[in-house]
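In line with agreed milestones, the collection of sequences with tokenised folds has grown. A representative record is reproduced below.
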Amino acid sequence: MVERRALTFTEAAQVRAVSSHEYSVHVHEDYSAAAAAHGGNLNVPQITSEIFLTVPLALIWRAILLHFQTTLVKQQQPDTVALHFEYLRPGLAGDATIKIEDVRLGKASSTVQAVLSQGGKEKVRAFAMNVDRSKSNGISITTGYTRQPLEPSIDFDRVLVHQDPHWIRWEGTWAPNSPAKWLSNVIIAFRKECDTDKNMSDSWVRCKNPAQRWSTEMLGLVVDLSSPPAENHFVGSLNGQAEYAREAMQWAAEGRQPPPAAGWRIPRFYPTVSMSIDVKHALPAQGVEWLYVRASTKSVLDGRVDIHVEVWDVEGRLVALSQQMWMAIDISRSPAARKAAEKQKGRL
């Protein structure tokens, strides 16, 4: 096991302006999540070349913020309140380019389009709307909406030392060959007793490195941190929230350190096709330590999965909403798996 300081997102997500509308970024491997099968459980090869594009999403967000701080500084609209992403192709850890087009510049709000490319191929297209929250004078209504059912209470200090009665700390240890290094940078608290609603998964999340706190532009990472609710329907699924809680309680009972993040351990994976994020409340400039994430699914049909995510802060404020479309795919059908299988076949 390799002991290593968790890399902060600020360190990993460096954005550099190349020109007024082009930015250079680097997708750090420590914040990449390979669409990988667990070799010990599945008769398919390890898939380490593809990554889920959650991290590039956050890089795009940071590039948009920089764009409004520099090229569009005269607009005085520093706050991104709505984003939509279309995932076109799998990405890779490494260098990438983000080009931004000013689609509509207005007095109250402005819209830009951002395209992240690698190797001359577009990977993600995104639209973002920016405003100045300090000048907002639109209609606000106190709707009284709360999350139902309400989750059990949590003591954050006690959960970190495995002493909370309702929640258990789960994490992955960094390892150089782990296909899910991204998970070694976060701490996730799962319910010890899962909710009876199989269409819902919930958790509390924080960054493992105490120097890193959740900021608004990191919400793209946060909304993708839940275990897939669809996996709750598969008895014994190694990627369902019940299994995460069970193994974390076992590590705590045995006094063991968590093993390296193993990545995907089931014969299904869920690549994101599209994602929208509505930022209700900006997080404070200094960031926050903990956020609550609830994900739910209403239908899984013909391989299409809808995901609805709510993000709340510890004060009970709704921070963000996200609606996503995933595909539920047999992992052996992924492009990387087919390529690896063909390569293996050629050796025979």
